[in-house]
Amino acid sequence: MNTTRRTVLAGTGATLAALALPTPLLSAAHAAGSAAGADDTTLLRTRWHTLLTGGPGLDTAEPRIAAAIARIDRAATTALKGLDPSRTDGLWPDLTSTAISNHVTTSFKRLATAATAWAVPGTTRYGDPALADLLGRGVDWMLEHRYGPGHTRFDNDWDWEIGCALALNDAAVLLHDALGADRLTRINDAVRHYTPDPNLWRADRQIATGANRVWICTVVAVNAVLRGDGTDLARVRDALSDVDGGGANSVLAFQDSGSGTGEGFYSDGSFLQHYKHPYNGGYGKELLGNLSRLLNLLDGTSWELTDPDVANVRHWVTDGFEPLVARGDVQHGVCGREIARSSKQGHVAAQTVIEAVLRLLPGLTGADADRFAALVKQWITEDTYRDFLDVTDLASLVAAQRLLASSTKPRGPLVTHRQFPRMDKAMHHRPGFTLGISAYSTRIYNYESIQNENLHGWHLSDGMVLLYDDDLGHYSEDYWPTVDPLRLAGTTVVAQRPADAAGQRTTNAADWAGGAALPGTTLGAYGQDLRAFGSDLRALKSWFCLDDVIVHVGSGITAGAGPVETIVENRGLRDPAAELTVDGVRAPSDAGWSAGYENVRGVHLAGTGGYVFPDPTALRALREQRTATWRDINIKYGTDSPVTRPYLTLWQDHGTAPADAGYCWLQLPGASAERTAQVALAPPVSTVAASTAVHAVRRAADGLLAANFWTAGQAGELTSDGPASVLVRPRDGQVEVAVSDPTQLRDRVVLDLELRGYKVRRAGRGVAVARGRSGTRITVDTAGLHGATVSLTLSRS
Q1: pLDDT at residue number 204
Q2: Are 316 and 265 spatial neighbours (Cβ–Cβ below 8 Å)?
Q3: Residues catalogued as catalytic
């Protein structure tokens, strides 16, 4: 049987195909199946044209489609402003640099934007011969003065091999019939000059990996379509699996399968790019988006992907994106330097993911088809901050409209606790909120700042906690340039300003980062042994995520200098006067107000939730209006226009040179002031241990014990022989246990539980249970698990 993408992805369902693809594209896909033997690249050009324009037959009178066409018109007007092919220094007066390569890419992007308006029926510029002539002359200017054989590249290689080529290819497809054979030949020669081979990249012949590899393949594929070159299309197909290279650089294989280079998706959902940077919401979303385009382009042809690993794409979505999306926003701890781009805020990353999954739907049937359709419908409908239908491209708009009009029910709110050991991140989803934790270790970098971007990302992985609640735009609306980067929620820091971009691409000196989770619940323990960059600060930090209560525990906070602070909260305020109460007393709401409190038990911030301190704690608070520019954090793309936003910050001051300081508080996202006061009087969770050996807490309602062992130690009835993260929950006469090795270095973890008369009812692979001196001894083989949780259930004999 001939294996195709359709059989690998479980077949093509007629119902979902009709829902997911605009009719012209769907028709092209069916036609391609019968034309594959003819290697009809003209058909594939039509298919790519449809991806860019929505294809012929659009109902231009339908309100959403009409609005999308109007957006294309407005974008073209903006792109064309100042265009003058008679200039000698650049097509646009603001894009004249011969040292900044982004000026070249942006020039081609503007030409492609205007070309889209020329190619889309219903725009005021549709089929305008004068515009076609102007854009043709613009292309000529770029080929003569900036891009192609005879021009020396400068600045960033990405622009030459990927950015420029993608935009120029799209412009050539859109304007194809108006460009003429000679100009098309020069376009193709220029693109091939920089990007001749899907397997090679850059002048030093470095092999492209991860998202870069898919971008390169996209460039070569579309250019091959323009040239009618079936041989290059076959090379693209093989390059995605790295057939010629023996599979070592396959983008389809999980990177922990033994055939990867380290850059790409892992089986736990993590995505790494630039060696050790978590990047699902940056390069990962681009990889998924571009691969979904390639799959659509080649589907049903003789160049279709037949690699069985293409089935992994489904798991990328369910494990690498679904748990990281919070009501339209992608966890910012996995978006890399893109958080410092104003154009990438406002749920833009999630839009790319949704568009990609819409393109994947035709390749799915049965349960997969139903699940993915329900997932996309949930994503679109739950994001009330940014309406997907108001911002997406025409092809995706048509597909989304059909899906929304179908009988498919949305998935419903995500309720889960997920950890990503391969990139030191965790996500805690409850019906009313999502909480993300960002750490790093010897295995993962702290943050990325290249090309003069993300200049103030110093503490993004120092235990940063991101709370996603009903304020869906919290991390949009100029959050990252205006927030105090020295006081990110959850972090423990030396409160001194480093130089811009100082310490980026640094790994933590400690291995301990990670945790354990009870399967099928929203119960998880997470922790980080923080060894700060640029100082001798050390802090042991834990987060015990117990359904609607998150317990923050810290110990061993030590530094030779300071001041050292742990940030309880740093919230951008929708209402600048949002009510803050401290132990039931309302605090002033004036901008610039600050105060120090002693012996605090409970704090409530209206619209956000509560914070309870089981032991009375000294706390500082500050309201401020913070003004900054995007250029402060991004010289490459940022503007100098000042923006001002209101913030409320709460923190603990550990002093100038703390020795073995600590903290503990309960975070109650979304809780009312009344609920916060009740919890402050009777905390539902108590601290069992908060030493440099172990952090542990117990929940009163069910006796759940959650512990992070930094070294060998004991917490209540539980003893560990070394570093481990453990949860123990008595339930219905049984005991559920979850354990991991967050250091990812141990071959086994040995636990002793003071429980007698229990036997194994269910256990994961590599678990042994025996009678011990104090009760029950559990031995877990953790070798090669890379921090993954192993679970078991004990029951009485």
Answers
A1: 56
A2: yes
A3: 283
